[in-house]
Amino acid sequence: VQLVESGGGLVEAGGSLRLSCAASGMMLSINTMAWYRQGPGKQRELVATIRGDGYTHYVSSVKGRFSISRDNAKNVLYLQMNSLKPEDTAVYYCTKIPRLLSDSWGQGTQVTVSS
């Protein structure tokens, strides 16, 4: 299984970015997938999840601003991020959940929001 994140960058507060997570060796459509993030000096935190049936869940700090989705045909997971805030600055990771102890994290994609 390989998950490769992309789409991060530097954006001004209030701007938007769309992150992508290309999956190989697994089908996103039948797994629960998640986006996590780790800000500078902070612990990694769960941002959003999407189940196989399409049900989504968001941490309260991003609700209404972020949207998780997937393209089953392309086997790609997305995170649309709007109205970005400086506190959204972090490295963002995608993963299947639940995670196994043997699961490693990808390289992530850096999102930097300037004030």
Task: Describe what you observe in this structure.
The N and C termini lie far apart (37 Å). A hairpin with a 4-residue loop joins strand 7 (66-71) and strand 8 (76-81). The model has no long low-confidence stretch (mean pLDDT 96). The radius of gyration is 13 Å and the shape is globular. It has a six-stranded mixed beta sheet, with no helix packed on it. The protein has a four-stranded antiparallel beta sheet with strand order 1-3-8-7, with no helix packed on it. The protein is an all-beta fold. The protein is 0% helix and 51% strand. The protein is built from no helices and ten strands.
How are the secondary structure elements laid out?
Elements: E1 2-6, E2 9-12, E3 17-24, E4 32-38, E5 45-50, E6 56-58, E7 66-71, E8 76-81, E9 90-97, E10 109-114
Parallel strand pairs: 2-10
Antiparallel strand pairs: 1-3, 3-8, 4-5, 4-9, 5-6, 7-8, 9-10
Low-confidence spans: none
Protein structure class: mainly beta
Query: How would a crystallographer describe the biggest sheet?
Result: 6 strands, mixed
Order of helices and strands: EEEEEEEEEE
Classify the helix fraction into a percent range.
Answer: under 10%
The count of β-strands is 10
Shape: globular
